[in-house]
Write a structure and sequence with these properties.
With 607 residues, the chain is α/β, with parallel strands linked by helices. Helix content is 35%, strand content 22%. The protein has three domains: 3-240, 4-Layer Sandwich (Glutamine Phosphoribosylpyrophosphate, subunit 1, domain 1), CATH 3.60.20; 246-426, Rossmann fold, CATH 3.40.50; 447-598, Rossmann fold. It is built from 17 helices and 27 strands. Strand 20, helix 11 and strand 21 form a beta-alpha-beta unit. The radius of gyration is 25 Å and the shape is globular. Bound molecules: 2-deoxy-2-amino glucitol-6-phosphate (AGP). Residues 301-304, 348-350, 353, 356, 399-401, 490, 603-604 line the site of 2-deoxy-2-amino glucitol-6-phosphate (AGP).
């Protein structure tokens, strides 16, 4: 999730670009750059690291007399964070530059064909193919619209782009498909931005570009064209009601809520380029030269540990590979038995968690291959793993991890299906149903989230009296119960304990009384009846119960919370946000600091 800003108007462009990038830093900033046109020449200045580093570099280049420019702050998905891979990217002539937010899924193929035509690539990014494709057509037609259309018709994946042509200093171009891009309408000036904070101090009047639309901005006009037909499209100007801080959270009150609600998009991005929906094959090329492991050791902390624990059930049931899951701080100090054909999978959103990193290093010292499932390109886990599967969830700002776990679960499910395919273990129907179910998941979740939030809000008020909560589940719902408990305790400060529902009678049930509620996950699966018996045991002791279940089941509880039944594994992706939203709404109701809970850090880089 990168940040884009573009400006064309009557003011010095560079200060506007840099301020705009700073307001977009929450979208990730492992590197940044700007481009502007000065005396008919394109100038590009880029740097690794924070915007402030770029700022120093820019002002030593005296760029102030220019009124058109593009800026970009990068959250790497392809190519490690460094100056070379920072945007904007230029064509070989130095006449055209592009900034991009999104994932070009077929960039490898395009890059190969462009290299065969003698195009030298200067970066490892997917983005660079865009500027060379535009340049290829522009050199023939000198027509920006035709050239941008020519380029975008060849790419698959998601993009929001800004484009400048040095021989056209009075126009700025933009286009989008699936990644956000907004046009800001000023007086004698116009803007583009990935999000409204980029230009909100200058105007609240905007045009939301739709997919397959291309925009041409001059100081006085904005014209929008159809990518498919090239025809001009009439667009409505809307007014943004937010102030800056609300705008950086996409209009949500907290980053945590924004990140929970982003999960449909996160699933889409985690899947991007990794499934061939025609052949139903899983495309995890990063794993191609790894053999099939005899055993998998999963090592992680906190929420990532819960994702890994959830994954254990899938690797064993789908791929018939035995799995051991360890909390990293335990793994690193016990003598784990790792054999040469075992695989160690470390899971870390930040890629910097000290215990997980130590576990990774220990596994490598023991001669094991390590796959890192990570959300930060170029992080320590990413760099030190033998293979990396990026979760592509975009920056997660809230300390409480939400969308990261969702993306980790997608990647883990793909890995389990990948190994099952390699071992010829998948029944075609079940495999195809899972693959197509994954494809539909973003839309289903998009529809479910508003209702899920409403129920979470209602129940959070009713149960805010609790001083302790049990979270119970069996099978795949047990790791989810652990995660639900972690979410509640870390942001609402209500004690909560996740437990295997079948374990209640071995002691914990002694705690149940009318003041001690239980949150029981009872989805329609082979364990449903067992969980219902556990519910009855709790009810016999007058414990209040919220039962998170599916429609058309027979179960009694103080509150029944139904989510659609997507069939075992995929239902987990509806259960998780329900647990997250219940914790979120409880914390909000109790007036807690949701995004920065007390005593916690976003990444625990110390032991
Ligand atoms: C989860 O809400 C917490 N913020 C915490 O448990 C976190 O999941 C854990 O510290 C692991 O972080 P990582 O995924 O960045 O390694």
């Amino acid at each position: 999730m990168c940040g884009i800003i573009g400006y064309i108007g009557h003011r010095p462009a560079v200060p506007i670009l840099l301020e705009g990038l700073k307001r977009l830093e929450y979208r990730g900033y492992d590197s940044a750059g700007i481009a502007y046109i000065q005396q008919g020449k394109l100038k590009v200045i880029k740097s690794e690291g924070k915007i402030s580093i770029l700022e120093e570099k820019v002002f030593s280049n005296d760029p102030l007399h220019t009124t058109i420019g593009l800026g970009h702050t990068r959250w790497a998905t392809h190519g490690v964070p460094n100056e070379k891979n920072a945007h904007p990217h230029m064509d070989l002539s130095g006449n055209i530059c592009v900034v991009h937010n999104g994932i070009i899924e077929n960039y490898t193929k395009i890059k190969e064909s462009l290299k065969a035509k003698g195009i030298d690539f200067r970066s490892d990014t997917d983005t660079e193919v865009l500027v060379h494709l535009i340049s290829e057509e522009y050199s023939k037609t000198q027509d920006p619209l035709t050239s941008i259309r020519y380029c975008l018709k060849q790419v698959q994946g998601s993009y929001a782009i800004g484009v400048m042509f040095s021989d056209r200093p009075k126009e700025l171009w933009a286009a989008k498909h699936s990644s956000p891009l907004i046009v800001g309408i000023g007086v004698g000036e116009n803007f583009i931005g990935s999000d409204v904070p980029a230009f909100l101090p200058y105007t609240k009047d905007v045009i939301f570009l739709e997919d397959e639309e291309i925009a041409r901005l001059t100081t006085e006009h904005v014209d929008v064209y159809s990518l498919n037909t090239g025809d001009k499209i009439k667009k409505q100007i809307k007014t943004i009601p937010w102030d800056i801080s609300l705008a950086q959270k996409g209009g949500y009150k907290h980053f945590m809520l924004k990140e929970i609600m982003e999960q449909p998009r996160v699933i889409f991005d985690a899947l991007a380029g990794r499934v061939n929906y025609k052949t139903k094959r899983i495309l995890l090329n990063e794993l191609n030269d790894l053999g099939i492991p005899d055993k998998i050791h999963i090592v992680a902390c906190g929420t990532s540990f819960h994702a890994g624990f959830w994954g254990k059930y899938l690797f064993e049931s789908l791929a018939k590979i035995p799995v051991e899951v360890d909390i990293a701080s335990e793994f690193r100090y016990r003598d784990p038995l790792i054999r040469k054909d075992d695989l160690v999978v470390v899971i870390s959103q930040s890629g910097e968690t000290a215990d997980t990193l130590a576990g990774l290093r220990m596994a490598k010292e023991m001669g094991s291959k390590v796959v890192g499932i990570c959300n930060v390109v170029g992080s320590s886990v990413a760099r030190e793993s033998d293979k990396v599967l990026y979760t592509q969830a975009g920056p997660e700002i809230s300390v409480a991890s939400t969308k990261a776990m969702c993306s980790q679960m997608v990647v883990i499910l793909l890995m389990a299906l990948y190994f099952a395919e390699k071992k010829n273990l998948m029944e075609p129907d079940k495999h195809n149903q899972l693959i197509m179910g994954l494809k539909d998941l973003p839309n289903i979740l998009e529809k479910e989230l508003p209702k899920t939030r409403e129920i979470a809000k209602e129940l959070s008020v009713m149960y805010s009296f609790a001083r302790s909560f049990f979270y119970l589940g069996r099978g795949l719902n047990y790791p989810l119960a652990l995660e639900g408990a972690l979410k509640l305790k870390e942001i609402s400060y209500i004690h909560a304990e996740g437990y295997a529902a079948g374990e209640m009678k071995h002691g914990p049930i002694a705690l149940i009384d009318p003041e001690f509620p239980s949150f029981v996950i009872a989805t329609k699966d082979h364990l449903f009846d067992k969980v219902v018996s556990n519910i009855k045991e709790i009810q016999a002791r007058k414990g209040p119960i919220i039962c998170l279940t599916n429609p058309d089941v027979k179960v009694s509880a103080n509150h029944i919370w139904q989510v659609p039944d997507l069939g075992g594994i995929l239902t987990s992706f509806l259960i998780l946000p329900a647990l997250q939203l219940f914790a979120y709404e409880t914390a909000v109701y109790l007036g807690k600091d949701v995004d920065q809970p007390r005593n916690l850090a976003k990444s625990v880089t110390v032991e």
